[in-house]
Design goal:
With 256 residues, the chain is α/β, with parallel strands linked by helices. The protein is built from 9 helices and 6 strands, in the order ααβαβαβααβαβαβα.
Length: 256
């Protein structure tokens, strides 16, 4: 937050709020209100749009400001899955690992969502949970699955790897409903049998490290991979406060 504030300068006021923890979105909005800002730019820190994440933030913001007597202009940056700065920052972190080790394969593992969430938000039935995600366009720009594949293609290109050198998968499923496939814990167990022994793992649905990245992807998946016959499973750290990420956020704000 401080790095972004310093980068943007005194013409902007940066406030930070979380959907379910403290500091809250309400406290962040009140902070901006006290500054008498005439415009609020809301950037949910979810690269790929999903109603359960980005949509929930947007809903909460509007729920809060509807009770204000004076509501400033409000805009949302709903998705940045294909943002050049975001891709470049994450690719830079990956290249640092690739410079130290020769990896056989890259796995892009995203937080999963139920299939019905994706289908419910489909543009007039456009989404078929298949080849419709091979391109990213105005009809599927708010499709979570299409956004994940778009991020993966761009990261792969930035890393200089071929289509057969990476996999896209989804983690953290809950309940009995069908969730987006393939499941990460399924594919990682199959990789060693294909001669893939060293894997570089990304979790590009997150821009800051958390239990899901460090524990589930970084540790639990590594244990599964080693037990299946793999040799190395390396998690690429999240963007956190990396200078390239701070610059990417700054550019998104300035362009909005």
């Amino acid at each position: 937050q401080k790095k972004l504030q310093d980068s943007l300068g005194s013409g902007y006021h940066v406030a930070f709020g979380m959907r379910y923890q403290s500091p809250s979105i309400k406290s962040a909005l009140e902070e901006l209100r006290e500054q008498s800002v005439d415009r609020i730019i809301v950037l949910p820190l979810f690269p790929q749009y999903a109603s359960a994440s980005t949509g929930s933030v947007q809903d909460k913001v509007m729920e809060i400001v509807k009770d204000w007597w004076v509501i400033p202009n409000i805009s949302f940056i709903s998705s940045f899955c294909d943002d050049e700065g975001f891709i470049n920052a994450f690719a830079t972190l990956g290249r640092q690992h690739m410079a130290k080790e020769d990896y056989d394969h890259v796995v892009f593992s995203y937080h999963g969502v139920p299939e019905r969430h994706v289908l419910k938000g489909s543009d007039n039935g456009y989404c078929k949970l298949g080849s419709c995600c091979n391109s990213y366009n105005k009809r599927n720009k708010y499709c979570y699955r299409a956004s994940c594949y778009a991020t993966s293609r761009l990261l792969a290109a930035a890393l200089g790897i071929r289509e057969d050198q990476y996999s896209v998968a989804f983690q953290s499923r809950l309940g009995k409903d069908p969730w987006l496939t393939p499941y990460t814990d399924f594919i990682l167990k199959d990789l060693p049998g294909k001669g893939i022994k060293k894997v570089l793992a990304y979790s590009p649905a997150f821009v800051a490290d958390c239990l899901e990245t460090t524990i589930e992807v970084g540790e639990e998946f590594r244990e599964m991979f080693i037990e299946a016959g793999g040799e190395k499973w390396q998690l690429v750290e999240s963007l956190n406060s990396h200078p390239l990420w701070v610059e990417a956020v700054k550019e998104m704000v300035l362009k909005n």
